[in-house]
Design goal:
Main location: membrane
GO cellular component, one term: chromaffin granule membrane
Shape: elongated
Structural class: mainly alpha
Number of helices: 4
Keywords: Cytoplasmic vesicle, Electron transport, Heme, Iron, Membrane, Metal-binding, Translocase, Transmembrane, Transmembrane helix, Transport
Radius of gyration: 18 Å
Largest sheet: none
Membrane topology: Multi-pass membrane protein
Order of helices and strands: HHHH
InterPro entries: CYB561/CYBRD1-like (IPR043205), Cyt_b561/ferric_Rdtase_TM (IPR006593)
Helix content: over 70%
Length: 136
């Protein structure tokens, strides 16, 4: 650490928690993808299926990649700080771009179908979460 004290050892069981978090994240992505593919017709950009891009992108960006970006400093605690900062920034940047694609998809889908934007509590809470993430 910066004050000269020895770096504490990795907490007991951290790798098991990380493995479980990754497994749960991948299962969430797989089940979201399976739900969209099997029950909602799949995903496509310029089609009635454009809306379906939204849940997939939000889960991938705002849950999985954002979560991984937060774990970088714990998982790679013995790596060079510069390397972990770069990985942290790349994961956050990728999460941000993917979430933005998900937001654009839902706005375009609404416009195409004549549905008003920002009409639900979900949309306001989601936009607040995204804007706060962006500002952070």
């Amino acid at each position: 650490s910066m004050d000269g004290a020895p770096t504490p050892a990795s907490p007991a069981g951290l790798s098991a928690y990380v493995a479980v978090s990754q497994l749960l994240g991948l299962m969430l992505l797989a089940t979201t993808g399976a739900w969209l593919g099997r029950y909602r017709g799949g995903v496509a950009w310029h089609s009635p299926l454009q809306f379906n891009i939204h849940p997939l992108c939000m889960v991938l960006g705002m849950v999985f990649l954002q979560g991984d970006a937060l774990l970088v400093y714990r998982v790679f605690r013995h790596e060079a700080k510069r390397s972990t900062k770069v990985l942290h920034a790349l994961l956050h940047g990728l999460a941000l771009v993917i979430a933005l694609v998900g937001i654009i998809a839902v706005f375009e889908s609404h416009r195409t179908k004549g549905i008003p934007d920002m009409y639900s509590l979900h949309s306001w809470c989601g936009m607040a979460a995204f804007v706060l993430y962006l500002l952070q």
